[in-house]
């Protein structure tokens, strides 16, 4: 029986393994964390339907168990070739093909020092908010309920100053989603989304945006927040230009939420080098082409699934995982 | 004895023209000096400064000591040409005196003495000495040829590109000494005599060349030698070789404390024309080494300005990091010259500008110590917060000048040439400081620090960079820090290190907290982060490329944390670094012992 | 405040008439500084602006108008800039904003 190693045990990795199992190919998932599930693990609900992330994850795990697919956790990959994967501890695992589904890394908001993340209380990232929603307790540092919340789009995306030129795509809709979730918890709160461009690229997204404006009274301000500073009463004062009126804008908020972008993993350069894989300027892996071979790498026998090649949403990732598994299966059956 | 032959004519004309033009230039530049500068000269002339200048002229103009320090081979090349030629002239003079006693001999008589002295008895000592000196100079010429062919062999990655006047003078100069060797050897071949060089070569020629041919060769060789000299002398005042005669007065004037300023003066001419275009400034320039920009370096800037073909894009494209100035063997004040060129190109003496500054005051708190964050520090709140922690720990009452937005210190405007407008900002801030009665002014920004110290009239207010202030707190026991085992490396900001001479204080503070590892190029030679406000020409990508190269050098030390003492350097280096980059104040705040 | 005073008026004619505006200087400016065309209008420059904190100066607005061929008053507006460089430090597109200020002053100084 042919064997495929899947690097990464997130949504992409699990879905790839399931599809390979359907096609009669043995799959081994290598996960560097203590538990499989990837970024979905920390997420609360998925746009645009507010489907709990846990629901998707539980179903994927159930199927994995049902198919008796092996997941090796705490297994960090150091290098790979189409026929083998070497772990950080030096162990070499042989296989017939590799699917790289190692995902992305969330941008570290502390790098944008001017927003005060990690410096002031009450500055959060979108990932913090998902975690707080999961914990069932969204609150300011002192435990009080926020009266006014600002969400800032494009933190660590479309920003040459942090060497992340690309658009992370999902932050816009995440900002809309979180604004609605927060509005639901704090109906009295005023919520402001600071955006550069609103990119509603998926089915149901534009409708969700409209609903946030119309039903939830979420304010959208076109301008990038430039600085945040703490006020004496523990709030955050933010500065931006309200570009649609052409005037500088200042406001104090109880919570500032930074919608952090998706960037390439730190080890992507080393992995790419070990296998001779090409990367795009953004640092993500570059598929062989964007149309007919978009789940294949430039190296025969190495395939891509999910956000290892570019920012994507969960639906796209799950679809791509099936495509990658099929491409790998076709390659092995040739 | 007659000291004239027709072949002397090119030399006589050339020498006369050269001396006339050089003296004329000196005179015009001196007369055009501002009155204050003239007074400095008058006061300096009868002082010890004059003796110092004489010594410096000997060490620099003849021996080229500073070039030796930067590059020994290059130093030898310049010394052999300058000092060797000087000795040829002076020993030749003595030789004439030894032969003829103290009697008047015209200039060409000394220069072409070998030609005229065929009837005199030989003095083997002088034959030997003069040949030795000629060999000394010829070795320099050979190196110069070599340098043109392969600059790397002389330890220079890049060598200067020349203008036409330079090419003429350079070609003539290259042939002067080989021509002299040929001419003197031909005379020796005909009349005997000469040392190990001219004598041997003469003997060799005597054996192989017929008498008539030899006589023609001798005549042609002396004509060629004289013409090379004449051509070189005529071209000299219009070429880079003008530095020979400009460096001498420059050394004197500098000793009399004349300086270039933000507005151009005639003193600048002495600096401009003292540049020998040796090209030593090219290699230290990061625009060259990292970005491959090869037409903006100081040597080209001075050349373009001297020949009145300076374009704004050349004047603007400089980080003003000062790395080249520390290496300049002539000690030219390159940054100030660049600054006053920009002033000439960009200054806008519009009286109505910045009227809006009037009566704005957003400062907070009160105290004898004022803290001026500076525009850049407002974008690095970690530094602000750290300084607040330091002040609190030291129990300092602080007046915050610009925490809620202030007025720029004026240096960026000054650096871009708008010096008059910058004065408005300086006046505004000075009045603000006075109004709040501070006696100490602390800033985290080296750019602000430099302008406060150099351009503000802040008598009674001590201006300190936060590194100096923190060190003082440590030394007086007002602040105590814990020592850990973290290894730090330190990046010298240009405006703090080369700009303000502050190298030791930040290092002392770091060593109070952990181990300090120095990068390959440090202190006076430290690299620039690339984001200097002095450069308005390079792109963001180019800034980032320089930052990456600097970060790589800092990370090569093996340190866990990169420390700097400038908000702009911090932001710039962080873009290219994989390790943490912090301002000194942040590290200090994290180590405060209560 | 009844109307926004930017030191010059755009009330006559109210519309930006690109057909009538002479875009030669605008083209020259963009030719020398093509990166200005990459502005996404996020307003970071204006939000951090030291001068804009003290007076009505809007860098983004002025250079946008200049790019549309609206030159009147642009020179005077740019003269309010202190060239402090904060905008360059925050521009997400990496535009050499200080260079833009100097270039616009250089190109439009004689209007």
Can you describe this structure?
- The complex is a heterotrimer of chains A (334), B (594) and C (111).
- Chain A has 334 residues and is of the alpha/beta class.
- Chain A has helices at residues 11-22, 53-66, 126-135, 170-185, 205-214, 268-275, 314-333; strands at residues 3-7, 26-30, 45-46, 51-52, 70-72, 77-81, 84-87, 92-94, 97-100, 105-106, 123-125, 148-155, 190-195, 219-222, 225-230, 236-242, 247-253, 255-260, 262-263, 302-304.
- Chain A is elongated, with a radius of gyration of 21 Å.
- Chain B folds into four domains: 6-244; 259-346, Alpha-helical ferredoxin (Fumarate Reductase Iron-sulfur Protein, Chain B, domain 2, Orthogonal Bundle); 355-472, Rossmann fold, CATH 3.40.50; 481-590, 3-Layer(aba) Sandwich (Rossmann fold), CATH 3.40.50.
- Chain B has 27 helices and nine strands.
- Chain B has helices at residues 9-31, 35-44, 48-62, 65-70, 72-100, 107-111, 113-116, 124-149, 164-191, 198-208, 211-235, 243-255, 267-273, 286-289, 298-306, 312-316, 323-327, 334-346, 381-394, 411-415, 419-435, 446-454, 466-475, 504-511, 540-555, 567-576, 584-590; strands at residues 364-365, 369-372, 398-400, 440-443, 462-465, 487-490, 515-517, 561-564, 580-583.
- The longest helix of chain B has 29 residues, at 72-100.
- Chain C starts with 23 loop residues before the first helix and ends with a helix.
- Chain C is mainly α and 111 residues long.
- Chain C contains six helices and no strands.
- Chain C has helices spanning 24-32, 44-48, 59-67, 74-78, 86-90, 97-108.
- Helix content of chain C is 41%, strand content 0%.
- The chains are: A alpha/beta (334), B mainly alpha (594), C mainly alpha (111).
- Chains in contact: A-B, A-C, B-C.
- At the B-C interface, helix 25 of B face helix 5 and helix 6 of C.
Keywords:
heterotrimer, B: 594 residues, mainly alpha, Fumarate Reductase Iron-sulfur Protein, Chain B, domain 2, Rossmann fold, 4 domains, 5-stranded mixed β-sheet, 5% strand, C: 111 residues, 6 helices
Please give the structural blueprint:
The complex is a heterotrimer of chains A (334), B (594) and C (111).
Chain A: E1 3-7, H1 11-22, E2 26-30, E3 45-46, E4 51-52, H2 53-66, E5 70-72, E6 77-81, E7 84-87, E8 92-94, E9 97-100, E10 105-106, E11 123-125, H3 126-135, E12 148-155, H4 170-185, E13 190-195, H5 205-214, E14 219-222, E15 225-230, E16 236-242, E17 247-253, E18 255-260, E19 262-263, H6 268-275, E20 302-304, H7 314-333
Parallel strand pairs in A: 1-2, 1-9, 2-5, 9-20, 11-18, 12-13, 12-18, 13-14
Antiparallel strand pairs in A: 3-4, 6-7, 7-8, 10-19, 15-16, 16-17
Helix pairs in contact in A: 1-2, 1-7, 4-5
Chain B: H1 9-31, H2 35-44, H3 48-62, H4 65-70, H5 72-100, H6 107-111, H7 113-116, H8 124-149, H9 164-191, H10 198-208, H11 211-235, H12 243-255, H13 267-273, H14 286-289, H15 298-306, H16 312-316, H17 323-327, H18 334-346, E1 364-365, E2 369-372, H19 381-394, E3 398-400, H20 411-415, H21 419-435, E4 440-443, H22 446-454, E5 462-465, H23 466-475, E6 487-490, H24 504-511, E7 515-517, H25 540-555, E8 561-564, H26 567-576, E9 580-583, H27 584-590
Helix pairs in contact in B: 1-11, 3-12, 5-8, 8-9, 9-10, 9-11, 12-13, 15-18, 19-27, 23-24, 25-26
Chain C: H1 24-32, H2 44-48, H3 59-67, H4 74-78, H5 86-90, H6 97-108
